[in-house]
Amino acid sequence: MEQRSDTGYRTKQPASAFSAGALIGTLGGLIGLGGAEFRLPLLISLFRFAALEAVILNKAMSLVVVASALPFRASTVPFTAIATNWPIIVNLLCGSLLGAWSGASWAVKIKQEVLYPIIAVLLVVIAAVLLFGHDAATPASPSLSGIPLVVAGVVAGFAIGAVASLLGVAGGELLIPTLVLLFGADVKLAGSLSLAVSLPTMLVGFTRYSRDDSFAVIGKNKIFLLVMAAGSVVGTCIGGLLLGVVPGALLLPMLAAILVLSAVKVWQHR
Q1: Single pTM value for the model
Q2: Nearest one of 8, 9, 39, 10 to 22, comparing CA atoms
Q3: What does the pLDDT average to over 110-134?
Q4: Distance between CA 169 and CA 202 in Å, rounded?
């Protein structure tokens, strides 16, 4: 597998790093995502990171987006609404934290040439979930109740945590439809709840990645990381302001199409 060392190339692209961060941050702040599904193909194709390095950097950037998106969305979805639904958050975290650790453990053991197609396939799957799993017209009522709902929440949380950690993403594309379809949450509330679940889940995965030698990519690309992080914070602010203005019926199919195109680009690196 070819190893790429393009740190100099990347440090000469501060405008591209900032712009990419801002654009993806806007999407994250608007929908309630970490935006990592769109950032990952850019890190691999445009900025020339190897697959595992891209996943680790993606996780770091997703943490920035998720942490900043929650307060920027507060004017539309207040923190009290999130706090009221703490049982749902805890339910999903019971599975997602373990899933995040497991997913990161798998990622560092998978060969790079195998990781590229896995990423591509998962991007297509997430695109399908975005396109068919989000429905603003879905009645706000849980599909299950009692113990079955709790068990389903833990299982769903584990699967989402594992996939999110494997890709270095926040997992909002899977969390939001789960919150809407399984727990009957409103789609806008689901976006903020997904961020509340994603943050600790991602921290667990990030901690596991820190034990691998590939984690050194963070230190080697600090300037790049800081520039893209700054763009991401600007973007999440814009996305939070746009929340409630851009109709999800138009935005979600567009995002799904971008994911499919991104999957094609990642697949070409296998």
Answers
A1: 0.71
A2: 39
A3: 73
A4: 8
